[in-house]
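>> received
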Amino acid sequence: MQKIKLFLFLMLFNNTVMAQPPWEIQLDAQNFAHLDRIFFLDKDHGWAIGGFTIGTGGPYYFTSDGGQNWYLGDWWNIQGVDIAFVNQDTGFIAASNGIILKTVDGGNNWVDIQTPAQYNLSRLFFRDEYKGWATIDNQSDTFQLVHTIDGGNSWEPQQVFDINTSGIYSIYFINDSIGFGGGAYIDMENDDHYTAIVKTENGGEDWNISYLSQNTFYAINDIYFYNPFVGWAVGQKSSYTYLILKTTDGGETWEEQIIEDYPPEKVNCAYFINDSTGWLGGTESYSDYGIIYATNDGGETWYAQENFMDPIYDIQMLNRDTGWAVGGDFIYYTTDGSFIVGDDEIQPIGIGIYPNPAHGKFNLSIPAEYQGEKITIVDIQGRIVKELSFPVGNTIIDISSQPEGIYFLNLEYRFNKHIHSLTEKIIKL
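>> returned
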């Protein structure tokens, strides 16, 4: 079996090398820490931590120069399984026995904050410096989340399921009110197991089931929403069978997506920079190796981008080119993430809009290979505020006459005989 696994890895690895893989090792922890979470506040300040996937907390690493240099935190005293910062000074670590660690001086000092949870915490999500959630790594508490509205100084329990053998693993909030959780719903009395996605519209006070799949014992590993309507949930639905779900109606319905070439055993994470361009990190089938997939059509087609010696557990991209991934002992880095391999060619994703946010004028860049008819700009209510002909090359989008706020740039384009749609969020200051 080991020979078969090695042969499959080498076969995929050699194919990827010939296609000039975009990811490179930025840090080798050399068996000191098992990394499975990566968090970047901006292009310079980032943190990596791990240990959850091997059943224990681990030390964290940090960088202030985009990963050119990584430094080990106070590993003797500070360990956890997830890390999040809301600014360069204030950050949080999910730790054991229901403890949240908090720093207000960039990690020089950390204080323990006991939440109502008694079991280990698993995932963190902060909307801003005041509002945050943490999931609990146990299905025995009477509640599944803890929530703060005062910057983590105090935490209150939130109950998602009425059956205490159920739990929430992944969590994502679109705004202060609307959020999603992914987990396992287990009715021990009737011996029924479900994979579940739940949704709240009031900040977690009440939750409703958004997706339910019966007779599985696998959870949703990650949830990611690009805008209030378009989101993905990924995980595993059975042994050696991955799960990718997409919604385009704010979680009212979910549709399964398929990876045709080199499908994984499970998908661990998802990250999108718009509603078309995204990446998945996973575990290869019948092996302990890792793989990253990329899409430029919203997940209609997934391409195996590169293979790794360990499963990929987390990905974060700053833009379509620059990003990080973690798995095992390694932090990986790319400055070429906009290239995906498919049909024996390298296909550019390539549409860019900058600066963003801006005071009304945005530069739009579209490769000459793309063809289309028109572009529309809509406000957050869905009203069209501007239309223009489909440009090629560089052009300026001017919405200076519009009020400050969030807008969406919508376009359809043709590339390689396929029609793709793209929505980019732009912010007018």
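>> Confidence is low (pLDDT under 50) at residues 1-19, 343-348.
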